[in-house]
Structure prediction request, 257 residues.
Amino acid sequence: MVATTYADMDMDGTGEDDTNGTKDVPATVALPGAGTHQLPDMAMPVDEQVPLVEAAIRDITAQYNAARDALDKRYHDLVGPYLVRAHEIKSYTFLRDANDRPYKSFERYAKVVHGIELSTAKRIIKRIPVLDALRTYAKEQPDDLTVKQIEVLYPVLKNHGTDAVVKVWDEACAAGDTSPVKLAAFRAELGYGSGQTTIEGAVGPATKQLDKVRRTWDPDDFDAAADANPETAEWVHKNLGAALERRRKRLKKADAE
Prediction:
């Protein structure tokens, strides 16, 4: 049998420091126990190799995912405050793209300038302010929040303020259940929005398609789509316009309360 050690893997497989000089995060991430697996000799019967190979792949992948999740969390903790500040001060408007034009959106700036995907950027800039509010004022401070919890709590913080999001969290903690579903129920009960959650991964197909359009389409694509199918384009324009108007009214009403 030929021994192969998988411990101390770097995250992209290049063997180089992936951390851009960040001293708090090691250049390599050890996978405890991964080195206990050995690659079977090809002379072994195939039916004996299969369980050994599958067990190694399963165990090493599970350990890699755990290490990746820990590194992601650390990255979010480190970069989060700066990304939130960049969003607040609209730093992208001071930078120019390859065509010497200012960036028109935070999302495109994050992707092009820093290589941060839209979903990651949105998750980070929502997570930091919600965690800050709860860790500062809540009776029970969370160590962290899941993506689904943040998707429920962030609109409360954005539309109703710190006191409101803390109240929702405290009520859920007092009930012994801070699941996204329970948080959404308390959010509705306290008058801070719908009891339905708008969670990434649990949204309707139209929302997913809009997110995809925003990530992948250029302005010219809209012209081509309108030319190719004007009736559908008019229908989308009419219904989205009406939805945006209803949203504006809801936000205006919430601000007045």
Observations:
- Residues 140-204 form one domain.
- The first helix runs from residue 46 to 89.
- The two ends are 72 Å apart (CA to CA).
